[in-house]
Amino acid sequence: MTESLFSPLSLRETTVPNRVMVSPMCQYSTNDGVATEWHRVHLGSRAVGGAGIVMTEATAVEARGRITPHDLGIWSEEHAEALKPITEFVRSQGSVPAIQLAHAGRKASKTRPWDGSEPLSPDEAGWETVAPSPDPYPYEDEPPAQRAMTAEDVEDVTQAFVDAAKRADEAGFEIAEVHAAHGYLLHEFLSPVTNDRDDEYGGSFENRTRLVREVTAAVREVWPDDKPVFVRISATDWLPDRESWDLDQSVELAPQLAEAGADLVDVSAGGIHPDQQIPNSGPGYQIPYAEAIKENTGVAVGAVGGITEAEQADQLIRNDRADLAIVGREHLRDPYFTLHAAQELGVDVELPVQYRRGFDLD
Ligand code: FNR
């Protein structure tokens, strides 16, 4: 049977009502990591807009793992409590609440994009960052203080993901996504560009992939059996001229992530180094990576990047190139992307009763 954008997706015991997911997007709008009214309205309105999955922005598993001091976090009970009303509301709209669990590694401790994304040192509201190797991200300005992770740090970070997953479950999330993309901590372990360790977490493919496999398995172990786990990866570093992470390695990794307990691989790209060369940033620019992983491994994938049109998203699913259409920036422009897509594709979906007149249904 041909699936379409409005076919439900079953993963474990979770049924997602359609194939649209709100891509995780940092809002940099918290008080010390605690969700605010902004998150309630932002995530809530995208659930009202009909997206099958509403995923939070990168949510830091420990304070050191924030990109900026304003990132969302889940490193304490207080953080989890603040997220509860959001998951309840998202669920009440028929959407599936999801959380992206994240650690920013060497890309932590910066100001917000609208304050220039400048590195912040420990004496100006920043903190010491941790990463697989001591080389900082090549910022134009002086980078924040950084150190290479010890074996104990590696254990602590894995434990932070586990504790965060437990809290996320208690807060009512149904999907946990491990963020291993965009040059943040777990991607930094995967890529030879940022990992020159000589212990069991560096060097060979097996060693560089060890931490993401361990974190995925550890999250899977505490995440209820009936709920799905996703992992977001960067399929390529877009650095073809040097030893780096590429699509072949992603194809090799995907089944290993599935083995570790991932139900879907969310396929993004890039972010490890400013020298990256993005070959194309037009419509659906990363879809071929998702498609290649799905075709070569049979692992369920989400495609993200330049998905902005109903027809385009529908064709993505109909042609079996991906299992989920993950929509980022278009959701900033249009919280009702899914309802508009249904209207455009002539699909009958349940609208919030309060909005039926706006869609000429009463
Ligand atoms: C992002 N992106 C992103 N990715 C991620 O994995 N975690 C995050 O927290 C963020 N934060 C974020 C904030 C903002 C404002 C933007 C625009 C993007 C990347 C995003 O999820 C998506 O992968 C890209 O934007 C590409 O998809 P679109 O926007 O072309 O649909």
Overview of the structural elements:
With 362 residues, this protein is α/β, with parallel strands linked by helices. It has one domain (20-279): Alpha-Beta Barrel (TIM Barrel), CATH 3.20.20. It is 33% helix and 15% strand. The protein is built from 11 helices and 12 strands. It has helices spanning 37-48, 77-92, 151-170, 185-190, 205-208, 210-222, 247-260, 287-297, 310-318, 329-333, 337-345; strands at 9-11, 14-16, 20-22, 53-60, 96-102, 129-131, 146-148, 175-180, 229-234, 264-268, 301-304, 324-327. The strands form 3 sheets. Strands 3-4-5-8-9-10-11-12 form an 8-stranded parallel β-barrel, surrounded by 7 helices. Helix 1 packs parallel to helix 2, helix 3 runs parallel beside helix 6 and helix 6 (210-222) runs parallel beside helix 7. It is globular. The two termini are 33 Å apart. The relative contact order is 0.14. The mean pLDDT is 97. Bound molecules: ligand FNR. Ligand FNR binds at residues 23-26, 57-58, 100, 179, 181-182, 232, 268, 304-307, 327-330.
Per CATH, which architecture? Answer: Alpha-Beta Barrel
The termini sit apart by 33 Å
The number of helical runs is 11
Bound molecules: ligand FNR
Question: What string, H for helix and E for strand, traces the elements in order?
Answer: EEEHEHEEEHEHHHEHEHEHEHH
Strand ordering within the main sheet: 3-4-5-8-9-10-11-12
**Biggest pleated sheet:** 8 strands, parallel, barrel
Global geometry:
globular
CATH superfamily: Aldolase class I
CATH topology assignment: TIM Barrel
CATH class division: Alpha Beta
Helical percent range? Answer: 25-40%
Averaged pLDDT: 97
The radius of gyration is: 19 Å
Instruction: List low-confidence stretches.
Output: none
SSE class: alpha/beta
Task: Estimate what percentage of residues fall within beta strands.
Answer: 15-25%
In total, the number of strands is: 12
Q: What is the count of distinct domains?
A: 1
